[in-house]
Write a structure and sequence with these properties.
alpha/beta; CBS-domain; 4-stranded mixed β-sheet; 8 strands; elongated
Amino acid sequence: MVLYARDVMKAYTQTFSEDMNALEAARIMAREGVGFLILVDSTGKPSGIVTEWDFLHKVVAVQRDASALKLSDIMTRGIIGVEGKTPTEEVTDTMFRHSIRRIPVFEDGKLVGVITSRDIIRIFREYMDQLSRIISRFSSM
């Protein structure tokens, strides 16, 4: 059975303006318990992502004032995403090749969800559990 991105993603449709203040964005991330925000440009088109690593490397480590920065100052431009019908094997390969821990899922050009490295680990764990059950059935014969 093939699993697709839409089967394993967490529904997520929130987007934020590139012009948002970085301090406010950090507060949202902390309140929501997420390590990223998907950003849109002035036309509403997805334009990039800001992650906890962006904050760490581009704000905290270099002692910049988050209240004086816009997300456009620290974001990673461009979105590496997948369509909902993308097989999970391709999703994991894309995440690996680009060294990313989360990947947005789109359907008809609209953000519908996000797959994180934790989701991939969960899938792998479920697969291993199923495999162990199958092996134990054959070993008891």
